[in-house]
């Protein structure tokens, strides 16, 4: 099992979500976030009282997937979130060692 985290432009999320759903990848967690760094789009950076440094609003998308689907998921996100400009975002893939269902405590362990 793998954990995919994607940080993408807010305005690209709907397109990415539709494309993932079309391919059958429907389970995900989505959060609105704020990021800063060299990957930010300088034209979209702003400051606020909450975050005085220049930052950009992003969507953080998380998905847990079987290892054999990861490349397909990453490709769908890339194809549908990329504008070719700085600030398009970042994706990371991490190993998942185990999962525990909150409802009943059922645990699954995975080889990493």
UniProtKB/TrEMBL annotation:
<dbReference type="Pfam" id="PF00543">
    <property type="entry name" value="P-II"/>
</dbReference>
<dbReference type="InterPro" id="IPR015867">
    <property type="entry name" value="N-reg_PII/ATP_PRibTrfase_C"/>
</dbReference>
<dbReference type="InterPro" id="IPR002187">
    <property type="entry name" value="N-reg_PII"/>
</dbReference>
<dbReference type="GO" id="GO:0030234">
    <property type="term" value="F:enzyme regulator activity"/>
</dbReference>
<dbReference type="GO" id="GO:0005524">
    <property type="term" value="F:ATP binding"/>
</dbReference>
<dbReference type="GO" id="GO:0006808">
    <property type="term" value="P:regulation of nitrogen utilization"/>
</dbReference>
<dbReference type="InterPro" id="IPR011322">
    <property type="entry name" value="N-reg_PII-like_a/b"/>
</dbReference>
<dbReference type="GO" id="GO:0005829">
    <property type="term" value="C:cytosol"/>
</dbReference>
<protein>
    <submittedName>
        <fullName>Nitrogen regulatory protein P-II family</fullName>
    </submittedName>
</protein>
């Amino acid at each position: 099992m793998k954990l995919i985290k994607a940080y993408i432009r807010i305005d690209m999320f709907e397109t990415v979500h539709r494309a993932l759903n079309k391919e059958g990848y429907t389970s995900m967690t989505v959060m609105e976030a704020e990021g800063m760094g060299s990957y930010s789009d300088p034209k979209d950076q702003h400051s606020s009282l909450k975050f005085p440094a220049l930052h950009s609003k992003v969507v953080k998308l998380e998905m847990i997937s079987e290892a054999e689907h990861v490349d397909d998921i990453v490709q769908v996100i890339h194809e549908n979130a990329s504008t070719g400009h700085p600030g398009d975002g970042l994706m990371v893939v991490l190993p998942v060692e185990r999962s525990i269902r909150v409802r009943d405590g059922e645990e699954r362990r995975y080889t990493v």
